[in-house]
Design goal:
The chain folds into 4 domains: about 130 residues, no CATH class; about 70 residues, no CATH class; about 150 residues, no CATH class; about 80 residues, no CATH class. The mean pLDDT is about 85. The chain is built from 16 helices and 8 strands. It is extended and about 100 Å long. The chain has about 500 residues and is an alpha+beta fold. A 5-stranded antiparallel β-sheet has the order 6-3-4-5-7, with no helix packed on it. A 3-stranded antiparallel β-sheet has the order 1-2-8. A hairpin with a 7-residue loop joins strand 3 and strand 4. Bound molecules: heme C (HEC) (5 copies). The site of one heme C has 14 residues, from helix 8 and helix 10.
Amino acid sequence: MERKPVNFIKSILIYISRSKLSVVGGILLSVLTPVLLVCILIDIKGTVQNPYFGFLIYLILGPLFLLGLILLIIGLFMSRGKEDIGLFTFEYIAEQLARPGRYIRIRRHLLLSLLITLTTLFLVAFVSYTGYHYSESTAFCGQSCHQVMEPAYATYRNSPHSRISCVECHIGEHAQWLTKAKFSGARQIFAVLFDTYPRPLPQPITSLRPVRETCEECHRPEMFHGDKLYIKDRFLPDELNTHVQTVLLMKIGSGGYQGRQAHGIHWHVAEDHQVFYKHTDQAQEEIVQVWLQDEGQEIHYFKKPDNNEAMGAPLLAMARKMDCMDCHNRPTHIFRSADEALDEKMITGAIPPEVPFIKRQALALITAPYETSDAALQSVSRGLKEWYAANYPDFTGARKPLLDQAIAGVQQAYRENVFPEMHIGWDTYKNFIGHKNGTGCFRCHDGRHVSQNGQIISRDCNCCHIVLAENEPAPDVLHLLKQALADKQQP
Ligand code: HEC
Ligand code: HEC
Ligand code: HEC
Ligand code: HEC
Ligand code: HEC
């Protein structure tokens, strides 16, 4: 009786059929293998752009495939007729070897088993590797749980960090943070499935790995130096949407490096001037104690209470050592104010500034409260059309395309920053980089933090920047700079 490969496969099937577990496993495998292979091929070719596609392949089909494989193997080993599985036992091989002329068949069987084993190993490795990678991808983090992550993802996409992946800031390389992140990730998936996540998502987030380690992988503020010119473009809410500019000479400074003294704004990151603080609220906005360890000496500052302010609020948490996040808490999830969002669209031309009063009208519409995004977008469109029909009728006729473009731009400004479904309005997340509404730098630099011997954390405007122009049309200073350059270029 000659055993052909067909018989060989037949005998494997018989063994499988002896155990219910391996039957289930076998069915899973035979259904999933072709589906999975086709899906992976499609994914590699990049034909399907839907983020759920990756989720389906790597986090559902992949693990199911592994489950099938495990069931099959467990079933085989547990099956009763173990003694019959000649193929898998040494006795069988020994018996075959004992018979002359059988080597060829044995070799064929061994090769076949080896091939199956290797393919399986490869598939297992491939599925776990790609699954793992997929769980690290921006598509998974930012797009799978659409509603929850939309605010974070939308703001990320409009930020200078949109080319680095979420995990580069949120997880990092060390095994300890990796495990922590995967566990909290699993918890988050449950929160999404059962709809128990908080809206808006809380901040500051405490699970970020030590932030200096993270940011300093790419930025080294101790090596910064000197001042830098910041120009902010704004539009006034008048008929002409007058373009004005604010010019600041920002004292970026340095954390001190190779003999260079720490100075300016990044003085805070130097190791020999460590600043610690305690706060009384979750958002870290109410800072009541600050102390500075400066080359051996320690200065304590306490916040003077306002006349009508009850101080005694309990201190939250332990003392926090100041790091990048106390100023750059929004390096990538930058939620703009309504004003700034419109200015940004106008400077890029997404909202044409030649539409009269567009800044004023748009601002009124986008800052009204809405229940859903769709309601807001419709209201913007209807509101602007009605107002221009009544006041500037040529925008319903010949100049309609300009108005349509403006409407699209205003809607985009809204969509990028406000997420009613997640309870995120215009000012939900504060940015600490400047001193809008007295937060940010002014949480300490407000002239009210005083030490025992009367030193005050500076509120001098020139300590951080020199305001060269504030909301001026065509500021002199920029004119001078351009003039100086032109003079220099002329011999
Ligand atoms: C440049 C670093 C960086 C990158 C890249 C980054 N994040 Fe963040 N993310 C942060 C920081 C810093 C915070 C904490 C803000 C705080 O605590 O005030 C944060 C906060 C969050 C929050 C909490 C909500 C909030 O806005 O405070 C979510 C959710 C989030 N990130 C998701 C993502 C996703 C999804 C991606 C990729 C699409 C991503 N992040 C990419 C730095 C980053
Ligand atoms: C993987 C590298 C990487 C990491 C990690 C990273 N950044 Fe950046 N950062 C960049 C790149 C790239 C740019 C864009 C530079 C540009 O556009 O000129 C940038 C730009 C910036 C800017 C300038 C933004 C602007 O408007 O010009 C700031 C501020 C900044 N990052 C802060 C941070 C902070 C704070 C962290 C830590 C939470 C961080 N970065 C983490 C790579 C990184
Ligand atoms: C005391 C607050 C503060 C701290 C702490 C701080 N920064 Fe800054 N940083 C600023 C300000 C203010 C600017 C300039 C204004 C802006 O970017 O809007 C700036 C600018 C930057 C820039 C852009 C520089 C450029 O030349 O364009 C980078 C990158 C940066 N910071 C990274 C960091 C990193 C990384 C850390 C932590 C090691 C850090 N900063 C700590 C306040 C701070
Ligand atoms: C947690 C409190 C705290 C916050 C927040 C804070 N600072 Fe400071 N800063 C200090 C202390 C304390 C000093 C040292 C006392 C002083 O010089 O007045 C200081 C000093 C400075 C100095 C002078 C450095 C030097 O050369 O002596 C600058 C510039 C400065 N801060 C800029 C900023 C900017 C810009 C921000 C916001 C982006 C900011 N700080 C936020 C606590 C803080
Ligand atoms: C502790 C440092 C610090 C002090 C003190 C300070 N500022 Fe600022 N200021 C900043 C930073 C940082 C920004 C930039 C924020 C940004 O990049 O958007 C800023 C931005 C500004 C802007 C531009 C705002 C905008 O976006 O249009 C003006 C105007 C301004 N400051 C005026 C003042 C005046 C007036 C004082 C004195 C009462 C003062 N600042 C004190 C740090 C400081």
